[in-house]
Specification:
mainly beta
Length: about 80
């Protein structure tokens, strides 16, 4: 089961090319409930997993970089160390 997230949560994201980085879930468009795409084709996947439309990229000091990543699912997020 994925951990439920909320607007303002700081999360750790992983990218095969970029490595790990921090992000903060942004409020923009967050009122819409997007289902994780894996839910539709994997019945064993956490059916409550949510896709967040906007996640702001943070630097190592947890300050905004001005960059965003889009459509990030809770199953792709983990807690920062």
């Amino acid at each position: 089961m994925c951990k439920r997230r909320d607007v303002g949560d700081v999360v750790l994201l992983r990218d095969d090319e970029e490595g790990s980085y921090l992000g903060r879930i942004d409020a923009l468009d967050s009122e819409r409930r997007y289902e994780c795409p894996r839910c539709s084709f994997d019945a064993a996947h956490d059916q409550e997993c949510r896709e967040w439309p906007n996640v702001e990229v943070l630097n190592d000091n947890r300050q905004p970089t001005g960059q965003f990543v889009y459509h990030v699912t809770e199953c792709e997020m983990s807690d920062p160390v």
